[in-house]
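Listing S7. Sequence submitted for prediction.
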Amino acid sequence: MLRQFPHGTCRASLRPWILSGSLFLAFWISTLAASSPQDGAVPFLRFRDLTLGYTGPDYDMTNLTEIRIGWFGPTNANDPLTGGAWWAANFAVQEANEQRGKLKEHRPIHVVSNQTTGSNRVQSPMVSEDDSKEMNGGLGTSSAEDSFSKLPIRLVPRWAVDPWGTGVSQLTRMVYDEQPIALMGSVDSASTHLAEQVVAKAQLPLVSPVVTDKSVTLAGVSWMFACAPADAVIARAVSKDILAALRANPPASQTGRRGLAMLACTDHESRMITREVTRELSLQGRLPDFRLDLPPNSLNFSTALSALEKVNPALLLIVAGPEDSARLVCAIRSSARGIQSSSKDRPGPEQTADSPPQMSGPVIYGCQAMARTRFLELAGPAAEGVRFPLLVDSGVGGVNAVRFAERHVAERHREPDYTAQLTYDATRLLIEAIRRAGPSRLRLREALVQLSPWEGVLSRVQFDGTGQNTRTNIQMGAIRNGRVVSLGICHETMQ
């Protein structure tokens, strides 16, 4: 039987408790505020200062006839966006097999394309069944390290058009059925986050060649390694160049253009970079005078062009993928009456090949996507003069870099962009770690840590405690005569 209390009795009885609790909370907050400065502690956790580790069980993989490396990404070598990365990973594997002295002759890389959502088991093009027996030295099954070093390496890919659906389920089955010693991938941060969830449970290293989203290594997964510089570093480079250009020029040019405008797409990659660029500009006290967000894969830019015509900016920052960036650049150049006549584009007595091209419209900046081959193919002459951060330096690397570029041009009929270059270096790093670690996933993880800093052919990899590459020497680049060139730290005068 429920007892009835007069109206307001419960509220009145709780008042002393509420008052006591409020006083205790105020006392606790004041105590923390008074004690924190004394010991120099900060009121939050700096995750980048930690060093992730693993203390669980370890075991050697046995009965191996080959060394399998999983690949979570597309396998269509003809894809203009992802084909270069797939080719580069295979090229690094082929080089490793040749260096072990098991391939008698060189064969071009003919990569098998398979984009189905069913079984996607692809035999590595450089390792046939007969080659596998010969490269294995006639051995059947052995896990001894002297035999392990003689085993051929093979990429085992898994992918689907829908990575969030069938793609990740295929990856999970591959990880447990094929038992790769490590995983390479993926082509963007969203799919890399999916792969990260798998390796967190399966306990095998995941090496990401091209992802710049810093949250990938902030999930606390000790098996995760990102070889590309983070978005924050990229944003710092482009922001520094933009601010220097603004300071070096008067508020308004002869054409009346002034200020900074920003066009940003809303896909995941662009949003992550936009956030870091906005933060960096905010810290410097110079946010864009105008910003417009656009959906990806747009074909109609009338709203953006009308807004830019009213704003009339001197500088324009475009944050988008390579294809969206190309469409935007072409539309903006066209609306500003495009590129001037070809006679004016050719260097004259007062203009050298290294001089800024005489282009109409605002000076266009972009993110690293403008260094992609796909951007150049789609933008064409409209790309002349655009500026962007470089993730690799094509001027370093020596003979190995030249050989890689020559092979890429010979077999793919185009110069490699940074996705192919970073994938090549990341695959070489992983293979070297495998060679040192032997048939153990845990020792492989530790070998990746110990190999840092790693001097790649075209980039330097130095992991922090979370597995993120900490390289900060990002240079600016530009399109000159249809090619990507490095500008170093110089700043050109706006036209």
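Caption to Listing S7: primary sequence and predicted structure tokens for the chain studied. The first helix runs from residue 9 to 39. The domain at 67-229+396-463 is CATH 3.40.50.2300 (Rossmann fold).
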